[in-house]
């Protein structure tokens, strides 16, 4: 989500979290020293103490339930053109009002990489202090490129949902947090969904340890890249149920989806690829190396950098992208153009070439626009979105077989960045 969301890295320091640099995660002791709670099996000695009584929060909930709060925040950000400073001030205000009402900690657990091999991954858990939970909410984050922005390393806006009585879990995508040495498989929906489902399946042990009561239905949300991942998470859970109606996870819980909330997601990466080539424009140029090399690693395609990229990206890919040191906004600036023919080779842009055809094929494998989603869902996309083409949500609406219980909100919500505010507002007020 660009400049505003990359600046959220400033807020992680507010809760005393430390960014991870080149760190050895080979032992539980190393993880514990960094504040991570190991979930497999649950290391209860590393869990923080939660007071028996809730601290309240009626005033905070009242403010967040007011349209004026969200409208005022959006106007303030717009007035300052969503500058890093204005976002930081807003995040600071949110943190000050909400942090006393929840407990949060980073977690590490076992999942799988795109090839299906075991991989240690990470994420963050937020628990409201009130033991009577309304449910568990899986929040899937926007596009990041610097590891410091990973949920396990920073304060997240989605913590607001604890004010509605939800336990909130935010998985790090593969390639961030404790798995930062891996290539991030950008838009490879199954690996992202798997990390979310595996974190969810570890939640009962945490909740039982603290004595929480909780329903077995869940809520899933996400905006931008997180919107596409959210749909993938819903699909994975439903597919597991469909394959075996009696199937339950190792904790004895049969999860059901209460509702899915997805905003401005790249649900159709193959369609977006063709659309961008035809326009010779990419709203977020950093997505080019993320998509191509992410798919290259996930499927062992054998692409070489010179097959795809032009200068200056060609010579600087390792530093700008692989290092996980630069934000999306910084990489966009360094790349210096949104014109695809100035960033990619002729073969990569020629849909008749074997290279482009291979890339299109693997991207099509990661499209979820035709999935027959059974759960109720809300999809928002601004008509003015300049980053994620509207065609993603249009294709979703036209190709998803069952529209019962589905709401498509296509409105004039401003830019991609601006539309994230009304999306968050809707989710919060609808919970």
What does this structure look like?
- With 431 residues, the protein is an alpha/beta fold.
- It folds into two domains: 2-267 and 374-430, Alpha/Beta hydrolase fold, catalytic domain (Rossmann fold); 269-365.
- The protein has 16 helices and nine strands.
- It has helices spanning 2-6, 28-33, 58-64, 67-79, 84-98, 189-210, 225-243, 269-279, 287-299, 305-308, 313-322, 328-335, 346-349, 354-365, 391-399, 416-430; strands spanning 37-38, 102-112, 118-128, 135-140, 166-171, 217-223, 256-263, 377-382, 406-411.
- The chain has a nine-stranded mixed β-sheet with strand order 1-2-3-5-4-6-7-8-9.
- Helix 15 links the parallel strand 8 and strand 9 (406-411).
- Helix 4 (67-79) runs antiparallel to helix 16.
- The longest helix has 22 residues, at 189-210.
- The two termini are 23 Å apart.
- Residues 1-22 have low confidence and may be disordered.
Write a brief caption for the model.
With 431 residues, the chain is of the alpha/beta class.
Q: What is the strand and helix layout of this fold?
A:
Layout: H1 2-6, H2 28-33, E1 37-38, H3 58-64, H4 67-79, H5 84-98, E2 102-112, E3 118-128, E4 135-140, E5 166-171, H6 189-210, E6 217-223, H7 225-243, E7 256-263, H8 269-279, H9 287-299, H10 305-308, H11 313-322, H12 328-335, H13 346-349, H14 354-365, E8 377-382, H15 391-399, E9 406-411, H16 416-430
Parallel strand pairs: 1-2, 4-5, 4-6, 6-7, 7-8, 8-9
Antiparallel strand pairs: 2-3, 3-5
Helix pairs in contact: 4-16, 6-7, 8-14
Using the CA coordinates, give the radius of gyration. Answer: 21 Å
Number of domains: 2
Largest sheet geometry: 9 strands, mixed
How many strands?
9
**Mind telling me which CATH architecture of the largest domain this is?**
3-Layer(aba) Sandwich
SSE series: HHEHHHEEEEHEHEHHHHHHHEHEH
Record the strand order, biggest sheet: 1-2-3-5-4-6-7-8-9
β-strand amount: 5-15%
Cα end-to-end separation: 23 Å
CATH superfamily of the largest domain: Alpha/Beta hydrolase fold, catalytic domain
Which fold does the CATH topology of the largest domain refer to?
Rossmann fold
Q: Report the helical percentage.
A: 40-55%
Quickly count the helices: 16
The CATH class assignment of the largest domain is Alpha Beta
Give the rounded overall mean pLDDT: 90
Name the overall outline.
Answer: globular
* Helix/strand class: alpha/beta
Q: pLDDT below 50 for ≥5 consecutive residues: which ranges?
A: 1-22
């Amino acid at each position: 989500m660009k400049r505003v969301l990359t600046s959220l890295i400033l807020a992680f320091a507010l809760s005393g979290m430390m960014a991870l640099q080149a760190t050895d995660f080979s032992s539980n002791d190393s993880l514990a020293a960094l504040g991570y709670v190991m979930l497999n099996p649950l290391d209860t000695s590393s869990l923080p103490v939660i007071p028996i009584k809730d601290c309240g929060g009626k005033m905070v909930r009242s403010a967040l339930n007011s349209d004026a709060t969200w409208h005022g925040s959006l106007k303030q950000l717009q007035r300052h053109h969503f500058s890093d400073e204005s976002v930081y001030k807003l995040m600071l205000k949110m943190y000050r009002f909400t942090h006393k009402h929840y407990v949060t900690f980073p977690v590490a657990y076992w999942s799988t990489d795109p090839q299906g091999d075991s991989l240690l991954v990470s994420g963050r858990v937020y628990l409201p202090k009130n033991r009577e939970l309304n449910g568990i909410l899986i929040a899937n984050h926007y596009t990041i490129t610097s590891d410091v922005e990973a949920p396990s390393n920073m304060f997240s806006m989605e913590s607001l949902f604890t004010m509605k009585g939800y336990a909130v879990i935010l998985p790090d995508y593969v390639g961030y947090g404790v798995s930062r040495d891996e290539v991030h498989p950008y838009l490879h929906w199954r690996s992202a969904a798997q990390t979310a489902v595996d974190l969810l399946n570890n939640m009962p042990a945490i909740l039982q340890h603290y004595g929480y009561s909780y329903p077995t239905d869940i809520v899933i949300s996400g905006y931008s890249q997180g919107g596409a991942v959210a749909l993938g998470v819903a699909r994975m859970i439903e597919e597991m149920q469909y394959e075996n109606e009696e199937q339950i996870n190792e904790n004895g819980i049969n999860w059901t989806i209460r509702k899915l909330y997805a905003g401005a997601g790249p649900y159709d990466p193959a369609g977006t690829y063709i659309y961008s080539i035809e326009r010779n424009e990419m709203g977020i140029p950093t997505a080019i190396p993320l998509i191509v090399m992410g798919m290259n690693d996930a499927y062992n395609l054998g692409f070489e950098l010179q097959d795809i990229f032009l200068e200056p990206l060609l010579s600087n890919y390792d530093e700008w992208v692989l290092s996980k040191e630069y934000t999306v906004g910084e990489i966009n600036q360094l790349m210096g153009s949104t014109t695809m023919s100035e960033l990619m080779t002729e073969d990569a842009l020629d849909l008749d070439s074997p290279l482009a055809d291979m890339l299109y094929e693997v991207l099509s494998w990661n499209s979820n626009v035709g999935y027959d989603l059974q759960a109720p869902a809300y999809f928002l996309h601004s008509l003015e979105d300049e980053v994620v083409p509207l065609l993603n949500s249009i294709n979703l609406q036209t190709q998803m077989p069952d529209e019962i219980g589905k709401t498509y909100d296509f409105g004039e919500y401003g830019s991609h960045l601006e539309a994230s505010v009304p999306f968050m507002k809707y989710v919060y007020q609808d919970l």
